[in-house]
Every structure is written in C-alpha cells, then in structure tokens.
C-alpha cells in the first residue's frame, strides 16, 4: 500500500494534464528527434487512441519531416490507402470508399472506421501540395495476408507481362486447396508435411533478382518486395503457430521490423517514420514478462537495431469506458464496457492521482520512480470484460517499456464504417 501511495505521489509530481492535443506539444517535441516514433494503443477499438495518434502524426509530418506511416495492418489493404492518398487510385470515390473496399477480413474495424477516414482525407489533401517524391506514404507491416499478397503479385505480373508470372501462379495454385484458411494450412504444414515453402521461396528469389523490371517504378518494386516477404514469413508464421505460439509471435514482430526497414530504405537513409501498433508490440518486451517466455517485439528489436536514441515509444491507456471487440475470433464486433482499472494497476494509479487526461515523459530524472513492476492493461480484438483481471494485465516496468505514456481517463468505442 505504501508503494502504491508513492507511485501516485510520483504521478502527481511528473504527469502533465491535457485536454486537447495542443497540450501534448512537449511530448511531441521530445519524440520528434527519433528516427521512428512508435505510437501504441491499449486496445484496437478505442476512438480516443486513434484520434490522438492521428493528431500527433499530423504534427510530426507537418513540422518535423516524417515521411511515412506504418501500421499494424495487412500490406495489400494498406497499400490501397497509400495509392489513394498519393493520388494514384482514381477508382475510389473518397477515403470511406477505399477503407470499405480494402478492409474486408476480420477484424476490419481496426482500419475501416470513421476515425481513420478523417486522417486519410487529410493525408490526401496534404500530399496534393507536395512534389511526387515528397508525398507521405501509408503502409501495413503485418504478416497475415498470405493469400492476398500472392494474389497482388500475380495481378501485377500479369499486368506487366512478366516472365516470372508462372512462379507466382504456381505458389497460388499450391495454396488453393487450403481455401484461404490459415489454420487449415498450418495444420497441414506442421503435422502432415504438406506445404508451399518451395514455391514461395522460389517466387521470392525471382522477384528479388528481377530488379531491371522495376527500374522506372521504385514503389512498384517496394510493393512486390514486401508482398513476397509477407508470403514467405506468413507461411512460416502459420506453420509455427501450430507448434510454438511464442515463436510465431516472434516471427510476426521480426517481420514487422523487416518490412519497416524496407520502407525506410525506400524513402532514404535519413528518413523518419511513424509506427501505429498495439502497446504489446511497441513497448519494449524486455520490460515485461514476455522476456521470460523468450518473446521479443517491435519496440525491443528496433531499439536494438537502431539504438535507443532513434526510437521513441509512446504507450496509451485508459481507466474505464467502452471499446469495440469480439467475444470470439470472427464474431460480430460489439461495443463492450471496459471495467475500471483493477486495484494496484497502472491504470488505477493514474486515475487515483487525479481524474482526467494526462501524460508522463520518462527521463533520467524520473525513470527510476516508475521502474517497479506493475500490472498494465492490454485489450485485444477478442475480449471478455468479465474475465479481464485473469489475463489482460501485463506485468511491466512502465518507464523502461515506454519513453512516454498518454492516459485518457475515460474512453469511447471506435466507430466502424
């Protein structure tokens, strides 16, 4: 109890209240010196997290020369947003249209929501004032789109009459019997030795070696490269998911960092990028119990690869409110009540210090004060509020997990299209 009182006292000392994003300027200024700013979220279905990340993103783009946004989404779907905001995709009427048509696989609401529409239209308008080579990009760095990525490769190779088209068709035909069901492919690959590894690896090598074909369209090369990378890593992911869940997580996060590296390279060695992902991905795994289970994540890997000075991770959380999620994978999403933060949790301490929104910047002066292990809430796309106290709190050393933290005391559910 004394420790909790000390924690609350330290929050009162170091936290800054805010009511609008303008109040976050000191945090944004701190973050702006990093090569990659990692913007988290405690759930995939909270409106305020999206709105605040959107506002911070605009500030970083407008005033601090950030060149792209990479999100926890599928590459093919997000690439349609990229085409739209760069003025390439004339087939879409508006931002809402591109989201509705591009995000159809569960959980579509993560990106097909009204909060994202506003940002996408802003990015499109902003890009219209920029030279072609300076336009802001939007990309998905997740690993799930095995079928969609190979279909995108086939479509492009057909369009360009590529001699390696048959390699892509071979890979797609190999996957056809699994009916776009990852679990079916995973079981077949892990337990029966029936897989498409050789076809996918051969396709990847052919794309990597076919540099001449993309000499006049570097973004097409990026698109093909990442789709091929997704295919290879997704195949490995679905195989491993059946035999080692922790290692499948590692494959996914390593893929995200690899995709991020390719995107950054496309924009130039000095480029700066913004990453949107769940707290469990952007907050350093070494500061949680994930480390004891042999798990790594984007926050840890990027700090190791680019140095801590080049990464600025901002965690997000809430004390209570509502959220969009499903009770089971694939079920219709619904608005659920987020219970008040459990006693002795990070969320409850932030609320007890003073109700209201606040942020904390961790630095040499205060980092030690927030380094004790404490439960920190994480809500996924599958959620049951009745059982959250049994598995939704991640033991964390908050000041080591993040460089800053934004607390929204009461939040509301995301609005799906």
From TrEMBL:
CDD domains: Ere-like. It holds the Pfam family Erythro_esteras. InterPro entries: Emycin_Estase (IPR007815), Hydrolase/PRTase-associated (IPR052036), UCP036794_erythomycin (IPR014622). One of its GO terms (biological process) is response to antibiotic. It comes from Evansella cellulosilytica (strain ATCC 21833 / DSM 2522 / FERM P-1141 / JCM 9156 / N-4). This is Erythromycin esterase.
